[in-house]
Design goal:
With 470 residues, the protein is an alpha+beta fold. The protein folds into 3 domains: 186 residues, no CATH class; 84 residues, Helix Hairpins (Orthogonal Bundle); 141 residues, Heat Shock Protein 90 (2-Layer Sandwich), CATH 3.30.565. It has 11 helices and 11 strands. Strands 5, 6, 7, 8, 9, 10 and 11 form a 7-stranded mixed beta sheet that branches. Strands 2-1-4-3 form a 4-stranded antiparallel beta sheet. Helix 1 runs antiparallel to helix 6, helix 8 packs parallel to helix 11 and helix 9 runs parallel beside helix 10. It is rod-shaped and about 160 Å long.
Length: 470
């Protein structure tokens, strides 16, 4: 299979060849048309000039010497190559220029028949059909250059430029000293073709080399090198594709690392309730009735803990993957906060004028985030937890306050990591260490933030900020 750069380059070369052939054909057609038009116009001018000269010549009855002198005189005045013939085709007289050019290879005659039987012969430059320009290719061996041919070639070149509205400097720059010929045009087109072809190769190769580097990076990433990134410098489509790959790779690496850590921590957390369940079942057969009841209660508690852990792990995985559990809708945050505050038995203090406060999102996830904050406050703050709701600067702000031991400032960011617990807060405090991590993920999924602050007089304040809906 051909490489991409070879196909692009060959396509460019073929297009250049087609353009060169097409341009040559069109140029030749145009030059032939212009040459035919110019020849016809020149012939018409010569015929008209002959008729004018006829009226200035002596009559046919005048002596032949007088007629010959008149022809020579008018030829000198008009600087034209003319000759006069009688009714039998014999020459009466001719101008000096006619006699000098009569036997030249680059001349043609136009005969004008007069009313009295005589005829005028006017000579004009001959334009051969072999070349593109009026100069043709009439030079080289076998074509003798007469004394007046240089001036004739200059005159033809000037007529050609005037007929095509081209400045003389243009052809002089491309074809010094001559009017363009077919061979000269072909040489210029060939040189132009090779110049563009050679200049296009490094450009095409540089583009495809970047694509090859991108392909190598994608293959390495797919082989397991999650830290692999590609060069995304530049402003073209290849650079945009490279940046997209790098962003996707970064996101994928973060998700895989997060899921790996989540599974590792979850497996660690599962060992504790499973070990307690195993011990409780082992002691169940030999326990007294009172101890048996305690063991059954312990078994139910551990099963509930396992169920909660599995549910939170699954929810955390879905949030990390960015999957939407339900289409977003307008959620009445005031009613939601009032319900959760009543359920948790905490004091609720909303600000004034919040009856129309709404946020766009998933009501179930928002309820889960608020419930986790309230349960965390009850767990560490006892009965002194409270809930506040306000509308500040286009955002809905929920504050959950407690009078617990507080969170040291260096750890106020880490408490939102999965399975992180403050020193001294082990399993006896309840929970598995995923509650606050889920709150942060739910807030991010709704375009919001959550942070922990210290509370004046002791305790902590958890602030959940969400964009309000109009």
């Amino acid at each position: 299979m051909k490489s991409l750069y070879v196909r692009i380059y060959l396509t460019l070369v073929v297009l250049l060849l087609a353009f060169a052939f097409g341009a040559t054909w069109l140029f030749q057609r145009q030059m032939e048309h212009e040459r035919g038009t110019a020849d016809a116009a020149a012939t018409e001018r010569l015929v008209a000039m002959g008729m004018l000269i006829h009226h200035a010549l002596p009559p046919a009855s005048a002596p032949r010497e007088v007629q010959a002198a008149a022809v020579a005189d008018w030829g000198q005045r008009l600087r034209m190559a003319i000759a006069l013939q009688d009714d039998k085709g014999n020459r009466i007289g001719a101008s000096e220029l006619f006699e000098r050019r009569e036997d030249g290879p680059l001349s043609r005659h136009v005969q004008v028949n007069l009313d009295d039987g005589r005829s005028l012969v006017l000579m004009r430059a001959f334009r051969p059909q072999a070349g593109f320009g009026p100069g043709g290719g009439a030079s080289g061996p076998g074509f003798a250059q007469g004394p007046g041919q240089a001036a004739s070639r200059a005159l033809r070149r000037e007529n050609f430029n005037n007929a095509n509205n081209m400045p003389p400097q243009m052809w002089g720059w491309l074809w010094p000293g001559a009017v363009p010929s077919g061979e000269g045009l072909a040489i210029v087109l060939v040189l132009l073709f090779f110049g563009v072809a050679l200049g296009a190769y490094p450009v095409v190769r540089r583009l495809t080399r970047r694509l090859e580097a991108l392909k190598t990076g994608v293959e390495a990433f797919g082989a397991g090198d999650l830290s692999r990134r590609v060069d995304d410098s530049g402003r073209d489509e290849v650079a945009a594709l490279a940046r997209t790959f790098n962003n996707t790779a970064q996101r994928t690496e973060s998700l895989l690392r997060s899921n790996k850590n989540l599974l590792a921590n979850a497996s660690h957390e599962l060992r504790s309730p499973l070990a307690r369940l195993k011990m409780a079942f082992a002691m169940l057969d030999d326990a007294a009735p009172a101890g048996r009841a305690r063991l059954v209660t312990e078994i139910h508690t551990n099963i509930a803990e396992l169920d909660a852990l599995v549910e939170e792990v699954l929810l955390a995985s879905r949030l990390e993957a960015g999957s939407q559990t339900a289409p977003p809708e307008k959620v009445d945050l005031l009613g939601l906060a009032a319900e959760e505050a009543a359920r948790s038995g905490v004091e609720f203090d909303p600000a004034e004028g919040l009856s129309k406060l709404r946020v766009m999102g998933d009501e179930r996830l928002l309820r889960r985030a608020l419930r986790n904050l309230l349960e965390n406050a009850r767990r560490y703050g006892g009965d002194k937890a409270s809930l506040e709701l306000a509308h500040e600067g286009g955002r809905a702000v929920i504050r959950v306050l407690d009078r617990g031991p507080g969170v040291p400032e260096p750890m106020r960011e880490r408490i939102f990591e999965a399975f992180f617990r403050l020193p001294g807060h082990a399993e006896q405090a309840g929970g598995v260490g995923l509650g606050l991590s889920l709150v942060k993920q739910i807030a991010a999924a709704h375009g919001g933030t959550v942070r922990c602050e210290s509370r004046e007089g002791g305790g902590s304040v958890f602030v959940l900020s969400l964009p309000a809906s109009n």
